[in-house]
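We emphasize that the prediction below concerns an isolated chain of 361 residues; any contacts that depend on oligomerization or on bound cofactors are therefore not represented. The input was used exactly as deposited, without trimming of termini.
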Amino acid sequence: MSTKFKTILDKERKKINKKIEEIYRDLIEQEEEPYLRKFHTYSYNFFKSPGRRILPICLVNTFLGLSNDRDISELIEDVYKISVSVELLHISSLIIDDLVDNEDLRRGQPTFHKSILGLENLSGKSNSDFATAAAIYGGNLLSLMGTRIILDSCFDTARKEKVLQIFLTGLEGITRGHLLDEHYKLKALKHITLEDYLILSSLKRGKPMETAIGIGAILGHARKSQLEPLMQAMEKVGIIDQLMNDVKGSFGDPTEKSIDADIINGQCTILTIIAYQSASLEQKAVLDSTLGNPNATGDQIEAVREIFRNTGALDFAKMYANSLKNDIFNLLEKVYPGLKAEVRSFFNDLLQFLTDIPVLN
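Result of the prediction step, given as a token string:
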């Protein structure tokens, strides 16, 4: 990642985080129920933990890339506020996903449901039941907060209705993705196809990106000739993000993310799918005995990584990501009238950022 792009991301994160703080401050002040004020405070503490904020940053940049100087001057603060809605949608999805997968950590910090175990138990339920309920309802509340932010914005009714439609379509798509993900966990690896994986990635990763860009485009008065190729391109950006996340899960920097967890947990990734399709009987036996085995040894895990290399799964993931990048560039060329040069440059740098893998071997 270039120093210039890192500076842009850091600057934008600060603006987004400031809006998040303002929204939660108003929410807590307006809440009449003492316990819910406490809950909102906890929710904010979780929300403000380190995050990429890629979705809201992309929303804002899409608006900037399509809008005239007058609209930018008059509306940019409200655009930053609306951008928080897609981060709320994203975080609500992560909270419930972590609960279902019983994850302990998120970005090096306790997950929502694990942290909430320490809160006072007022319901008489077991702490575990309370944490589960709080994560489910709290996650739902965050996505609903996103709709409220949109409805309370200063934009005209027509634009708010279009934005809300895109937001709700995004929520529906993400939820469908999670349901499919749980279904695929019940299927044997040999029965999961590349098409299955791409559909899942499109919903879980592509849909949030598509939603963010769609909202930014509508706020920027996008024409149909701008909106459609932009949303198609950003869906593919989301798939690339999933592909690279899978690669980093086995070949990335171990100081940033465990490179054993995906193998131990038997995660359905681009690497496992392609490797299994191309593996010999002996290699399939290794995959079957190691993937999803919490007691797998270091040697067994490394053997799986070697299979990922030898079957061409690792090379395929990188090749497919590069193919999608070319598709994205072609789609961005179809945006007419085109994006401003500096915003087009931002999306080029974003693709480089998402595909940057410091450690591969």
